[in-house]
Amino acid sequence: MNSVREHHRPYGFKRLLRAVAEEVSVERLATDAGADLRRRGDAARLRGYGVCHGGDNPTALVVYTDEGRYYCFRCAEGGDVLDLYASIHGLEDKKQALIDLAGEYGVQAPARPESWHAWDGEKARRRKVLRRALAEAYRRRYFRLFGGYLAGIEDEDERRAEARRFWFELWPLADSSAKWRLSR
Question: What are the residues whose beta carbons fall under 8 Å from the beta carbon of 26, sequence distance 6 or more?
């Protein structure tokens, strides 16, 4: 598995978010950001200063440890660890916030399984075979369509040489037609 900073295109937003949520709790993030969290009332609730806005109310931020969520009464915002990180750092882009959060806490981006890479290679091989077969069919079709001028060449050797040249010159047109057809 690669670190997120080395590999900027992680294998799925949800998978990386799950990995981050397992490693970094809302409580840990809030504490690291400077919130002095204390238990008040319910054992699953922690209260502290709103680190997302730098407030002075010691009970503005509530961390629900059993749910892995938070709510700031001053900002009227809440959410999970990603939402808190984005709020603290003023990030609007959730993907960027997730990458930054994972990088800051050293969370590894989940890697695609080897079977996915094997299948991806097999798909590429099959596409190549299909494109070649389709291009050959297009070349035969173009030869029949445009090759009528060959009948006007009386010398058989010259007609055969011209047909061969024309046959090979049709390949780029046939290949681009096949590529276009497969891209639709």
Answer: 63, 64, 65, 68, 69, 70, 80, 81, 84
Q: What average pLDDT does the structure give for the chain?
A: 86
Model confidence over 86-145: pLDDT tens digits?
999 999 898 899 999 999 999 988 877 888 778 888 999 999 999 999 999 999 999 999
The token pair that represents 101 in the structure block: 């959060």
Pick the CATH number of 13-104 from 3.90.580.10, 3.90.70.10, 3.20.20.150, 2.60.120.200: 3.90.580.10
Distances (CA, A) of 122 to 39, 56, 115, 184: 56, 59, 10, 21
